[in-house]
Amino acid sequence: MEGEDERSRRWRLVLGGAAEGTLEGADARMDAALAALYDGQERRGAGLGASAPRVARWLGDIREHFPSGVVQVMQKDAIDRLDLTRLLLEPEMLEAVEPDVHLVGTLLSLSRLMPERARESARSVVRTVVRELEARLTRRTLTAVSGALDRSARTHRPRRAAEVDWNRTIRANLRNYLPERKTVVPSRLVGYARGQRAVQREVVLAVDQSGSMAASMVYAGVFAAVLASMRSLKTSFVAFDTAVADLTDRLHDPVEVLFGTQLGGGTDINRAVAYCQRLVTRPADTIFLLVSDLYEGGPREEMLRRIAAMTAAGVQVIVLLALSDEGTPQYDHDNAAVLAAMGVPAFACTPDAFPGLMAAAIERRSYDQGRIFGSGR
């Protein structure tokens, strides 16, 4: 009977008021929180309305009854389904919400409308999320990128056996192959150069500010700040819609970078690519990362010609259709196909796969070695 009662309870919570049976205590409060968000108004008359106190109480209820991951999903659904965006301008609301990447994206899109008394609360929310992302991603990124930079720098005088690049050494000495001994005699060693401090690579990161790219902007801002902390890299960060904003001078603080963006405008990829072309001083040592869904509002053919010119000059161009955990994004398949035909990879990338992607780019390895998903083909 206990097992049957538990199944009935769970089905009652899943089906809501349309199911038979009543709930009591914590179950009733949990059901009311779900009904306010997911039940049709014509059936239950619950809802959250436009009342800030009611929404604040509801946010407190869901944090009490549901785990953090579920709370974040319900908050995002509430913003999308019930149009609660306006209420996020209230400091009381911001203090009640569970900070996450989606909420940061929403706050950044509202930053120009936010009253002064809510601005510091919004910064606190963004700062909390940025710190969590830095704790999750910084060490892995620094390890992957610094290792790739070490391996990509070559020397013909390796000091230790561990510094010998055996694959390159064998290829460099194939003419010294002795058939009778079935071995290669290495007259010249190729190794990894360690400890270089000079700038080895230039990274130009250009991120689309359209509304659909909000989560990608948050992650890109954090990654750009991490890359900018490395002396072996010269990192530039550009945000764009129909205009271009160079935020490189803010990379010491990713929160400042994010508040320098303005999510939700139109898109002129061509103008952004033209600006980034001017930042490239060493084409053969430059990685250009364009984070965009490729829906171009500017001159498409000119944008494609500029990218083709960058690749012809030796720049490694990579298009990330999304930099987020949200799965395969919506994107312009025609533009992605044209880029793929000219040898420019276009795919979506998870934040956890980004350090491996950067390492592969530095070493000029194939990008399918990382855990990436989606395709521009």
From TrEMBL:
InterPro entries: LolB, Uncharacterised_CoxE, vWFA_dom_sf. Pfam families: VWA_CoxE (PF05762). Gene3D superfamilies: von Willebrand factor, type A domain. This is VWA domain containing CoxE-like protein.
